[in-house]
Amino acid sequence: MQVAEVVTYLQMRSPEDLVPGTPAPVELAPTPPDQRFRDVQVRVGAPHHWPTTDWSADQWEGYLAGPGLHHGMFVSDGQPVGVLTVQEERHAAEIVSFGLVPEAAGRGLGGHALTLAVRFAWGVHPEVRRVWLHTSSLDHPAALPNYQRRGFEVFHTEHRTRAIRAV
């Protein structure tokens, strides 16, 4: 099935631009990109049609072995509730994946989780001068407003059509 989506690219040019979210009972633990990480990423992405939800074992292996990737898992009450992957680039860090599992949505964790993610991204290398990400209109409706409330600014949007698996 083909769907139309709007992809919005956002950036932050200084760590001082971060507007922290309300503290919440969630923490970020750097984690190896193991099967548990993959399982949580699939749970996060499935409702939003993330391409990773359909990847083969070989695709996962190639992606997770990529240079400059940093992975973390969000934990609340001892349970994994989300994932983070940051790609270290020359003078920049891209938040490649960020999200919470469906049952964690609406619990007030997202703003604080994003605050932790942004701080982590700024810290992946001392020469990072820009943190950026993109979000799709297929992502959770709170995603774009959360990014903007944390201090990200839109620098590009594009409209495109994408094939997704019918549910």
Tell me about this structure:
This protein has 167 residues and is of the alpha+beta class. It has a single domain, classed as Aminopeptidase (3-Layer(aba) Sandwich), CATH 3.40.630.30. The protein is 23% helix and 36% strand. The protein has a seven-stranded mixed sheet, sandwiched between helices.
Number of strands: 7
Approximately how much helix is present in the residues? 10-25%
Largest sheet: 7 strands, mixed
Overall body shape = globular
Q: Number of folding domains?
A: 1
Task: List the SSEs and their pairings.
Blueprint: E1 2-12, E2 27-30, H1 35-45, H2 57-64, E3 69-76, E4 79-89, E5 92-100, H3 110-122, E6 131-136, H4 143-149, E7 153-163
Parallel strand pairs: 5-6
Antiparallel strand pairs: 1-6, 1-7, 2-3, 3-4, 4-5
Give the structure's gist in a few sentences.
The chain is an alpha+beta fold and 167 residues long. It contains 4 helices and 7 strands.
